[in-house]
Design a protein that fits this description.
Layout: H1 4-17, H2 26-40, E1 47-48, E2 51-52, H3 59-71, H4 76-100, H5 105-117, H6 119-125, H7 131-145, H8 156-170, H9 173-183, H10 190-194, H11 196-247, H12 254-262, H13 270-277, H14 285-303, H15 316-330, H16 344-358, H17 360-365, H18 372-377, H19 381-397, H20 402-424, H21 432-443, E3 448-451, E4 469-471, H22 474-483, E5 488-491, H23 498-503, E6 506-510, E7 513-519, H24 520-528
Parallel strand pairs: 3-4, 3-5
Antiparallel strand pairs: 1-2, 5-7, 6-7
Length: 534
């Protein structure tokens, strides 16, 4: 079967993911956990910075180790793995579309294009993180619940396996992603409505089997990791995370305001919104399935106060299916042919981005723009501005195949923006040079400490074999300096002072602030003289 969406996405993802190194803190943290497990030969208990890491189960880390066992330790395989997992996501969306909308093959043709082109999903799908693997497990589980042309009964064995793998990917949150389509099964599944007892009994058994898979790892890991790890894993990952989540509140409507960003570039296509708002009852079974999945999960994540945009990545396939199904229905309506519903807002956005980049030099010289972020774009602003202007043309000059044009333009635009970031802003995010310096210091017997946040951002990049000591205050630094006078300390000043420039052995910009590595004795002396602001 021809799958042009798959090959286009693979080309775009491979171009983008190898443009620069692992991104801190997302990719570097996961890679450092995998590296410390590999270094310690600890394949049941994850480690980060010398301590058992209780935040995530190990399935993604095992897949990384599998590639390392064949080709050696490096960052090429983890990146290829993320691309492969993204490809699996597209295939699963295609298969689920065929199951949910068997009489409308155009949904299966367009849904993979849509999910492939979501800008936020594309960029975060390139991070070595857990969400894409979790999305694959969620889609596989839901695919097992959906009827096939030959068999209406669910495949509960496959459902149990997918749930178990999802739990081993990111823990109990997997249940939030898949429980509602099962609990609300009689609303969308004819077999579930006719066989309610079998649906719920066998579904509950499948969920229990999936939970037992996670518990088996928990029992083995806590036996190996000791009492402290047991407390962190069992208590922190359940009650502790719920309490922390509600203690760090975001408003209930936070995800709602994020939807236009998450759904780019399609949120700039009026026809997509018109199609969604034109859905009317009675809803077909496939739409009811998507409603039973997406709405409760959206509300569930909205209720929990701790929020991150990428928590919703496993639902991006569902959003794509809903959008594709709504567009398919709208194409048969007289109002669906209106030119005002075309992708002209996306064309305007591309043209505005292009015009801004082309005129960036003049804007900077005139003082209308002063931010160093934009100044860093200047060396490449004109050619990339022309590229964005050209991307606007197929959106306004062509009429047929709008969904494919929006998807292709969106995909090319995000890869282009990613390339501009790599050429201009990436050096401020690249920890490879400092990690190599820290590795050289470690080889020379000099211990390393980190003031403030330490998420393992240097461990994998430098292949460090000793933990970086976490220090939380200046007093901690002073005490550490007394026992490690030859050590190095990593700091993150907001501004560089004369003492920074004179005494730090390494300095680089980082996300609007600075990263500075000091001999700890010089840092303490500078603090004593009052030469540092931070």
């Amino acid at each position: 079967m021809a799958m042009p969406w798959l090959w286009c996405w693979l080309v775009a993802a491979l171009i983008a993911i190898f443009q620069h190194g692992p991104m801190p803190m997302y990719s570097t943290r996961t890679l450092s956990v995998a590296w410390e497990m590999w270094l310690r030969h600890s394949f049941l208990v994850p480690y980060l910075n010398g301590l058992p890491y209780s935040d995530k189960p190990p399935l993604l880390l095992w897949l990384i180790h599998l590639g390392w066992a064949v080709g050696g330790v490096g960052d090429v395989w983890p990146r290829l793995l993320e691309v492969l997992l993204g490809a699996v996501q597209l295939v699963l969306v295609h298969r689920l579309a065929l199951r949910l909308f068997p009489d409308r093959p155009e949904v299966a043709r367009s849904a993979p294009w849509i999910v492939a082109a979501y800008s936020f999903g594309f960029l975060f799908g390139l991070q070595v993180m857990y969400e894409v693997l979790l999305a694959d497990c969620v889609l596989a589980a839901l695919l097992c619940l959906a009827p096939t042309p030959r068999k209406e009964a669910p495949r509960f064995v496959g459902f149990a396996l997918a749930v178990g793998l999802g739990l081993l990917t990111k823990g109990p949150v997997m249940l939030l992603h898949v429980a509602f389509p099962w609990l609300l099964g009689p609303l969308w599944n004819r077999w579930a409505k006719q066989e309610r007892r079998r649906w719920y009994v066998r579904g509950a058994q499948a969920l229990i089997v999936g939970v037992l898979v996670l518990l088996a790892w928990v029992l083995l890991a806590t036996t190996m990791g000791g009492e402290s790890y047991r407390q962190k894993l069992v208590v922190h990952q359940t009650a502790g995370r719920v309490v922390d989540s509600f203690a760090h509140a975001e408003p209930f409507w936070w995800y709602l305001q994020m939807l236009p960003v998450l759904l780019l570039p399609f949120s700039l296509w009026p026809r997509a919104w018109a199609a969604l708002f034109s859905l009317r009852r009675p809803l077909e079974a496939g739409i009811r399935f998507l409603a039973c999945w997406l709405l409760p999960v959206f509300v569930g994540f909205s209720v929990v106060s701790g929020k991150q945009p990428y928590y919703m990545l496993p639902e991006f396939g569902g959003y794509a299916l809903l959008m594709a199904a709504a567009l398919s229905l709208m194409q048969h309506k007289p109002s669906g042919s209106s030119r005002w519903l075309g992708p002209w807002p996306l064309a305007l956005a591309c043209a505005a981005a292009g015009a801004t980049l082309i005129s960036l030099g003049a804007l900077l010289r005139a003082g209308h723009i002063r931010d160093h972020f934009y100044a860093a774009l200047l060396p490449y602003s004109v050619p990339f501005g022309i590229a964005f202007l050209l991307l606007a043309l197929p959106l306004v000059l062509l009429r047929k195949g709008e969904v494919y044009r929006v998807a292709l333009v969106g995909l090319i635009a995000v890869v282009t923006a990613h390339g501009l970031f790599t050429l201009t802003l990436w050096p401020a995010y690249d920890f490879t040079p400092v990690a190599r310096m820290l590795a050289h210091a470690e080889a020379g017997g000099r211990p390393v400490a980190n003031l403030e946040s330490n998420d393992g951002q240097y461990t994998f990049l430098g292949r460090l074999t000793e933990p970086v000591t976490q220090l939380h205050s200046i007093d901690d630094v002073r005490r550490w300096a007394q026992t490690h006078p030859q050590g190095l300390v990593i700091t993150y000043p907001r501004r560089l002072t004369a003492a920074d420039r004179a005494n730090a052995v390494y300095i680089q910009p980082f996300r609007g602030i600075w990263l500075a590595v000091w001999p700890v004795s010089a840092f303490v002396d500078a603090q004593a003289r009052g030469q540092l602001d931070e």
